[in-house]
């Protein structure tokens, strides 16, 4: 059975807070590989740059900033009233970031 996008998120232990950036990055890298990102983006008509709303010449800092802003906006916890749409957008955003940051 294939893992869901949020399986890792749902099992992340937050009892002692949300952890530091290194812990989140490690958990993120374990959940979405470059191949999985390519698979998600191959079903989209948008480019990774369009998804993150940045120009093709964007720096790594600009890519990271755009990713953080969008993932915060579309996080499933903040969009419980439209969780399916939020999960799909989160997948696209994370896939785009994965492709541009590898």
Features:
single chain, 102 residues, mainly alpha, Helix Hairpins, globular
Tell me which CATH architecture applies here.
Orthogonal Bundle
Specify the helix fraction band.
55-70%
Task: Name the CATH class.
Answer: Mainly Alpha
- Name of the CATH superfamily: DnaJ domain
Q: For the CA atoms, what is the radius of gyration?
A: 14 Å
Provide the number of structural domains.
1
End-to-end Cα distance, whole Å, is: 27 Å
**CATH level-3 fold name:** Helix Hairpins
Order of helices and strands: HHHHHH
Question: Unreliable runs, pLDDT <50, ≥5 residues?
Answer: none
- Which of globular, elongated, flat, extended, rod-shaped describes the shape? globular
Number of helices: 6
| Average pLDDT rating | 80
Secondary structural class: mainly alpha
Largest sheet: none
Beta-strand content: under 5%
Please give the number of β-strands. Answer: 0
Domain J: 47-102
InterPro entries: DjlA_DnaK_co-chaperone (IPR050817), DnaJ_domain (IPR001623), J_dom_sf (IPR036869)
Protein name: DnaJ domain-containing protein
Fold blueprint:
Elements lengths: L6 H5 L9 H11 L2 H9 L5 H5 L7 H15 L8 H19 L1
Helix pairs in contact: 3-6, 5-6
Describe this structure in words.
By secondary structure, the chain is an all-alpha fold. It has a single domain (21-101), classed as Helix Hairpins, CATH 1.10.287. It has six helices and no strands. Helix 3 crosses helix 6 and helix 5 (60-74) packs antiparallel against helix 6. The mean pLDDT is 80. InterPro entries: DjlA_DnaK_co-chaperone, DnaJ_domain, J_dom_sf. It holds the Pfam family DnaJ. This is DnaJ domain-containing protein. Residues 47-102 form the J domain.
């Amino acid at each position: 059975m294939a893992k869901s996008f949020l399986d890792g998120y749902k099992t992340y232990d937050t009892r002692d807070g949300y952890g530091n950036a290194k812990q989140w990055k490690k958990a993120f890298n374990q959940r979405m590989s470059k191949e999985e990102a390519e698979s998600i983006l191959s079903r989209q008509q948008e480019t990774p740059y369009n998804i993150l709303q940045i120009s093709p010449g964007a720096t790594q800092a600009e890519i990271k900033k755009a990713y953080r802003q969008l993932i915060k906006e579309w996080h499933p916890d903040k969009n419980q009233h439209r969780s399916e749409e939020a999960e799909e957008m989160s997948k696209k955003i994370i896939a785009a970031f994965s492709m541009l940051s590898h």
